[in-house]
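hey can u run this one w/ adenosine-5'-triphosphate bound, need the structure tokens asap thx
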Amino acid sequence: MTELSIKTTTVSRADPTVWAQLFRRKLAMFGLGFIVLITLGAIFAPLIAPFAPDEQLFEGLTLQGAPMAPGGQFLFGTDLLGRDLFARVLYGARTSLIIGVVANGLALMIGTLIGVTAGYFRGWIGAVLMRFTDLMMAFPVLLLAICLAAIFQPSLWIVAMVIAFVNWVQTARVVYTETSALAEREFIAAEKTLGAGTLRILFRHILPHLVPMIIVWGTLGISTTVLLEATLSYLGVGVQPPTPSWGNIIFENQTYFQAAPWLVFIPGAMILLLALSFNLLGDALRDILDPTQRGMR
Amino acid sequence: MLAYLIRRLVQTALILVGVSFVTFLLLYVLPADPVRQIAGRSATAQTVENIRHQLGLDQPFIVQYANYFSGLVQGDFGRSYLQKTEVGALIASRLPATLLLMLGAIFCELLIGLTLGSIAAIKRGKWIDQLLMVFSFAAVSAPQFVVGLLALYIFAVKLGWFPIGGYGTFAHLVLPSLTLGIMGSGWYSRMMRSSMVDVLRADFIRTARAKGLTRWRVLGRHALPNAILPIIAMIGIDIGLFMSGIVVVESVFGWPGIGQLAWQAIQRVDIPIIMGVTMVSATAIVLGNLLADLITPFIDPRIKLR
Amino acid sequence: QDYTPDPNAVDGGGIIVTYKDDVATLDPAIGYDWQNWSMIKSLFDGLMDYIPGTTDLRPGLAESYEISEDGMTFTFKLRQGVKFHNGREMTAEDVKYSLDRVTNPETMSPGAGFFGMIAGYDAMADGSADSLSGVTVIDPYTVEIKLSRPDATFLHVMALNFSSVVPKEAVDEYGADFGKHPVGTGAFKLADWTIGQKLVFEKNADYWRDGVPYLDSITFEVGQEPIVALLRLQQGEVDVPGDGIPPAKFQEVMSDPAQAERVVVGGQLHTGYITLNVTMPPFDNVEVRRAVNMAINKERITQIINGRAEPATQPLPPSMPGYTTDYEGYAFDPEAAKAMLAEAGLGDGFATELYVMNTDPNPRIAQAIQQDLKAIGVDVAIKSLAQANVIEAGGTEGGAPMIWSGGMAWIADFPDPSNFYGPILGCAGAIEGGWNWSWYCNPELDAMAAEADSITDPAMIEARLQKWSDVYMKVMEDAPWVPVFNESRYTMKSERMGGDDALYVDPVSIPVNYDYVYVTE
Amino acid sequence: MSAQAQTTPGAVAAPGIATGPEAGAPVLTVDGLTISVRQDGGEAVLVDNLSFALGRGETLALAGESGSGKSLTSLAIMGLLAPGLRVSGGAVRLRDTDLTALPESALRGLRGNRVAMIFQEPMTSLNPILTIGAQLTEAIRAHEPVSKSDARVRALEALKAVRLSQPEKRMTQYPHELSGGMRQRVMIAMALALEPDVLIADEPTTALDVTVQREVLDLLRDLQREHGTAIILITHDMGVVAEMADRVVILKQGQMVEVAPVRDLFAAPKKQYTRDLLAAVPRLGDGSSAQALPEPVSQTPIASLSEVKVRFDIRGGILSRVTHRVHAVENVGFNVYPGETFSLVGESGCGKSTIAKALVGLVPHLGRIELNGHVLGGLSAQDQKALRRDVQIVFQDPMAALDPRMRVGDLVAEPLLIHGIGSSESRRATARELFDRVGLSPDWIDRYPHEFSGGQRQRICIARALALRPKLIICDESVSALDVSVQARVLDLLKSLQADFGVSYLFISHDMAVVENISDRIAVMYLGQIVEMGTRAQVFGNPQHSYTKRLIEAVPVPDPSFERPLRPRLTGDIPSPIYSLGEQPERLLLKNIGDGHLVAVG
Ligand SMILES: Nc1ncnc2c1ncn2[C@@H]1O[C@H](COP(=O)(O)OP(=O)(O)OP(=O)(O)O)[C@@H](O)[C@H]1O
Ligand SMILES: Nc1ncnc2c1ncn2[C@@H]1O[C@H](COP(=O)(O)OP(=O)(O)OP(=O)(O)O)[C@@H](O)[C@H]1O
Ligand SMILES: [Mg+2]
Ligand SMILES: [Mg+2]
Ligand code: NI
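ok here u go:
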């Protein structure tokens, strides 16, 4: 198990400068700032939010039952039940962060692991893993969701698990293709002749080359999983009304995007910014940690 | 190669059997009774039992599956519970529209994604790169329903360039393809950028430039094919991802595809249709992946099919 | 005659109607969606019919009918010279064949249960007979139908789509695909059906009613998102959006006078309600059920759906005969409700679940209900699921404590008070897989209902309706339901559409009675 | 300004050119060129104020220490410096145009057409997913409006000119299917086909055996004669410098040490560095003076090969069926004993690297390979790992063999880590020490591979192989890119390790002088088979096989005044190891002609 223990050496050596370099990058700092802001907002939502997220305010609806536009008493306006959208977005961040970061991260990890293994070994291990991936991809996810919804009590963790369980397949496939190309490179052969174990080759030599792609999948995955959560919740697997999530706010209100655009565009912008922030941060970290990019800005 | 192909086709068949079994099982345990959907709200218990018997739904699971499966291998998808029509015919009548839409979407994705991704990679770190990054993320974060309606509103209603939904001519195809493809184009452009950045650094690009090749040739002939490898893998995936988006896009644009059929069937537990659509889309996905795997060695000769 | 044709009506022209969902079938024995219901009505005819725009019965393919003294035998005299779309004349044999077909288990008709009062039905249902013994062909133009029990709703049943007369040879020819190749006697015939895209009906020139239909053709475009359909209506591409005005567009339409003018409002035979499962504690306590009834703010809920409904007081909708006009229902009074709960020993409230179908606006309504109940200390968890799952939970004993009926709600099959009782409030429905989701079973009321339905004498109609009124008042006392609102129908039409407004909110032909509307240009 | 436009006639093979009408006007002038790299805290200068001029038809040799900035200078001329590097001062003029000031679009028109370049590392410089043919024809068509088929014909000619066997077949192959020398010849063919005004050749013959090198050099001279091409030749091989160059620029650490006509330089070097450099040049015949090692008779071999065969499939057709086979290695057998240096020499593409790869299990082989008593194949993971500790290989193409995303220090320390040796500090210390021993600054261990020069990378690979102190090191052209002084140093290092620890070497090289210098025994390979094998004295002193003789004759002599006896240029079919399915090369039988000196008969 000496294979993995090296990890710290390089990182720690670069560590002091990573932060310093990060601080010099405006965009990365913007990303970090937004992530921190949203996380704090989610944690301290009860202190910040002017109303409870599920309180259907009498003054939140016009007499005809129309929601209030942003501004005035309601910062982000109100939704179709007269609830304060600002409060809902704040509380919704809790769900969406868990889905976008945890579930998506888990899916990414599983996918990478399976993809790398299959791509490196090819042969029957690769065949088995990739055919399993095919199977999962071909599998009707919505149906599974409907089934789970009826069997389990809906909960955030179930939907997170479902997302992690079904969303790794795409990553796995792409990682697989990349890895099988990498595995043919000469430096991997060189590593083998040094006696490097499989784990070491996979984690120290192949994985770093996949990092840019993993950043792409990971950050774009934030958006898609947050939206997927809404679909699954809609079918009854995940959070149930009135618990807000950015995805379900959009989902519930998307037909009203002309009558009450704020109901779709504000949570939409949040998702976009969250994914973008992670991307900016990830890109910056990659630039800093990845030597081959040095001096390219 | 031939041996590989045969092996993969056998595996494909096995996967499809697996998918059919699991889906059938899911539908079996699904706490929603198709018979009650058929019988309707005024039915007596007797009627319900009659129908259940007629459809063979009172038999043990294994028997039901065996019956379905034996039909399947003979190309018989069964009859819809609610429409009473042959599922095969229903799917066949809608499949062309869906395939057309998917092709259109893939075309849009590739066109937009590869172009923007390449531009971003070339202009790495410039403002246009950042702008394109925001575009990609917006494309991925935007709910397709809203994108579709906005597109319809702007290009069909306000500008009148395209018909407001419908099916038939090329003009009908443009907006739905674009809507379905826009999300993928976000993915593709990010993927493309990332792999292009890598490739542009390679020594052989330097060689190509040293030959004095035009910019287009360096990009098109040397950088693109090297960068496109992960993209190829995505096309197989896309077919799977489309299956979820297609429901929305089809209904916004009134596109007579398979998505709407599937959605209605799911809601009403019309098992033969659900099974049929699942099998067809599973086949498409698995074959799409197979195709991607077959193409890769042609693009990167270092990879060998094993 | 029973109906005066519109003097301004002009012949010719075609209209375009859109729907989101595809049309499953046009087989009258099978079609039971609200969208193919009116299409089938235009393609087929039954012995009985309704006066357009009303809930009043009139003879259809039957020229006249006679009822025996005991109300157990009906003798229908058929119209002569009525031709099927295939050119053959319709005879009494066809009537008998059609009734046999719909009650034959092999047909798997969801409407078979309606025919339970016809003699010989039971033998059909259990498969021991292949023909209804109660239906006899007297001569080519006379059919006699014997009942096994007196039933006042029988004539309404004869007006149902399920009773439509179909030609045997066409059914035999197409077999299970008859639903895609319908042949009837209706005002329109199917000209073209492009699956998943559109259906074209064309005028039946040989139609047996004189003067109608006016339209040359109707095109149904399916698979069209309601919002887009409305957009197309605003562009003048569509004449009637079959799914109505989508909630998201409702205010926009109503606030524009030019558009609002083209909206026709009418009642429909609909009630939205919450079922309270009387077999599950604490709803087995009538006090708790009453308290819940008093806790729901129906005004607010109607506000949420943009005022497209009237608060309801009882199971029956106001336009239904037998509606109790002077009944106030449970008043909205959270304080009293709270007190009542305390009395029932639930002063600290309790936790329960509310099942709801997951299409807008139902989850929203459920959330409003949730908030109302929270105010009296009841903690409601919402389970928002696909329709089939909700129906399943409702039909499972102990499956769902509360269900909001929206989206699956009871729209009457025919305008008779009995239609709101049997399957959804009677003991017959309180079974595994049944539709009585509150599992409310009161044998006493069942007896009353049977009694009311056995009053077949037209002269006694008032007495019958009073009986029904009593039944529903008793139901309200036991409070297995919270009737929430009666939804109104808002139909929008294009500028060129003509015809009486009543035709656009026809209670039995939704959205439009195609046979009588016309276009002005 | 030290550079003058004057040229001195006197190049051996092309006496007429330098005095040609245009000789006076420089084609290319490099004027005060300074190249710097952006680093964390500012800029560091890599090439400092370099000036020289190149006349028409002239050959200018850039020689000097590995890492002195030769490659950077040539890249700067092409305008192809990697991002992060930039020309921070001076100018490069092609006739009158200042290339450093030209926009990319204008440069593009000049590249390939007027100035062409042969890159140092051929593996990474060829597009891995395009066939050789595609890459060649494309270069031709980029500048001349010829049809595809014409371009193909010319590409074929170019491949034939560099003496690549079966050029038609090669056209359809991919870079990774060619041997190192073949790739290099493809690069040369590409540049030659363009017939540019100025050709920059960065170590063009490092991977070529001397006979082919000879051909290629002749070819360059032909080009020069026919088209008046001016050549900048970067090489560390003083023999090549002596034979080819008109003038020589000596570089050290980014600075010009000396510039002089070739004869003057060799005859009377002015600077100490130049003198050292020349003194370090290995000469054929020197090796015989080295002391002979004890006879390794009684010992068991550390590596033993018998009847080893390696074949590669070539697929064709839509179904990718195997149509041909490369018989890369055929029935090779030899032993390497502990403490011995065994050299493999032979024509480029004859299977040397393939044997090396088979020894470390990277290509599947037939026959028997025994390493340290274990038969290769079917070993347990543990045994395999242990074996890997004992046998190390230094790959031919150093850039491709280093993980581009790891710091070189980590790369060098990695074998220790893999085998669980030492603590992280001690490993780091070892890495620093190894860097020092191969002549690299220990301060560079936190850099990444792409930040080094070709020769430096080669040394990193050597350092990595040494880290474990293995029993057998396979060196595949491992000193080919090193300048002579560093080369001498590295060779000394290898020898001292051998003396101290009894390390054995399997040494693959095309540089006969080096081979003679270092080897105990030598095997000469030709087309996958061994044609002659014996001790150094036997092979160099008494070459029997015609190919061996040719090889020794072709060695360039580091003396500009040396007159090479005229020999007919090689013509006719170039033998190739590719056979159709079912065909086999004829098996050569080795005959012992005394004292274990084996020679192929027939
Ligand atoms: N991208 C880079 N970043 C930093 N330093 C670099 C970079 N590229 C090259 N160098 C340094 O510049 C110096 C000159 O490199 P160059 O490649 O020109 O050497 P060279 O003379 O060609 O040597 P060799 O004969 O070994 O190929 C070397 O010391 C190298 O470490
Ligand atoms: N992967 C491969 N596929 C097909 N042919 C190959 C492959 N690798 C090597 N060859 C062929 O095998 C033969 C021997 O190659 P090898 O690399 O061993 O030559 P070499 O003796 O090391 O030559 P050089 O001195 O030029 O490096 C060549 O003809 C080459 O084309
Ligand atoms: Mg160099
Ligand atoms: Mg080699
Ligand atoms: Ni020429």
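Residues 461-478 of chain C form the longest helix (18 residues). anyway lmk if its weird
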